[in-house]
Design a protein that fits this description.
The chain is built from eleven helices and two strands. A two-stranded antiparallel ribbon has the order 1-2. A hairpin with a 2-residue loop joins strand 1 (130-133) and strand 2. Helix 1 crosses helix 9, helix 2 (38-56) runs antiparallel to helix 3 (64-83) and helix 5 runs antiparallel to helix 8 (186-211). The protein is 72% helix and 3% strand. It has a single domain (2-278), classed as ABC transporter involved in vitamin B12 uptake, BtuC, CATH 1.10.3470. The chain is mostly helical and 289 residues long.
């Protein structure tokens, strides 16, 4: 029964991790941008929801659209200023590692200057409540965040599969040159895809604001966690990222419950190390050689 309890809690957090990583894998899949600034964008979204809750009492779940829109607009600004110019260069992916690292440091410094590196968390009424099913309890904060995350991921998947613009995004991801030849406005697709990826980060941040404690510098810890999820699933694979997030979240929860909480985070780092050695393209990645 205790194992079932841990698995349920791990799955709830796993969907939140999946939402956190979905924008990162979308941006890489379409533009080959290794976005090390993605975690600090998540924290930016968390600050938006946190202050809306503190100042106006707005539930963090209801502030998801506001956080998504705010971070999406920030993403458009960053893309136009930093990433659009050199998109056609062969070394673009390598360049984005340094560009996004520098961007993360700038936003980190700005948030730390404005809000200090003080741990914060939103505390809606349900944050400390739980439901009980026999001997199993499910914290409402984790349950709600997992359900909202799953809903957003499903909407994203349906959008990418069935909408006309989603098809254009997938075409650009598969072959940029061929997409241009059939009339896809690749530059516009890249801009909107980056904005959507940032909006997903903002949405995740809104949920993070009441599930985890957060502060600007915590994004350095999340970089390795999110990269391990992307690499495990396969760079650019949304399905792989979601499955990787669920698997590693459950394994991490089991390790923390039955061995030591200090080792639970190490699960993500060990998975990143092993997958790069054994299967660098990830579980759902496509062989490129």
């Amino acid at each position: 029964m205790e194992i079932l309890q841990v698995i349920i809690l791990g799955l709830c957090l796993g969907f939140v991790y999946a939402l956190m990583v979905s924008g990162l894998t979308l941006i890489f899949g379409v533009m080959r941008i290794v976005n090390l600034a993605h975690p600090i964008l998540i924290i930016s979204g968390a600050f938006v929801s946190y202050w809306l809750f503190i100042l106006f009492g707005l539930d963090p779940i209801l502030s998801v659209p506001a956080a998504a829109l705010t971070v999406a607009l920030l993403g458009v600004l960053l893309y136009k200023l930093i990433f659009e110019k050199n998109a056609a260069q062969q070394t673009y992916s390598e360049m984005t590692v340094l560009l996004t690292f520098g961007t993360a440091m700038v936003i980190d410094g700005l948030l730390a200057f404005l809000f200090h590196n003080t741990q914060r968390t939103a505390s809606p009424a349900y944050a400390t409540d739980a439901i009980f099913i026999g001997d199993i309890f499910i914290p409402l904060a984790q349950l709600y965040s997992g359900m909202v995350s799953l809903g957003i991921i499903v909407v994203l998947a349906l959008f990418l599969k069935y909408s006309e613009f989603g098809i254009a995004i997938r075409a650009t991801s598969q072959n940029r040159t061929s997409a241009e030849l059939v009339g896809v406005n690749v530059k516009f697709v890249c801009l909107i895809s980056f904005a959507i990826g940032c909006a997903l980060a903002g949405s995740a941040g809104s949920l993070v604001s009441f599930v985890f404690s957060f502060f600007p510098s915590r994004h350095w810890e999340w970089i390795a966690i999110l990269m391990s999820l992307v690499v495990l699933g396969g760079m650019g694979s949304l399905t792989g990222a979601v499955i990787g997030a669920l698997v590693l979240s459950v394994v991490s929860s089991l390790v923390g419950a039955f061995y030591s909480p200090a080792w639970s985070t190490m699960v993500f780092f060990l998975a990143l190390f092993l997958i790069l050695i054994i299967r660098p393209r990830g579980l759902f990645g496509i062989r490129t050689d």
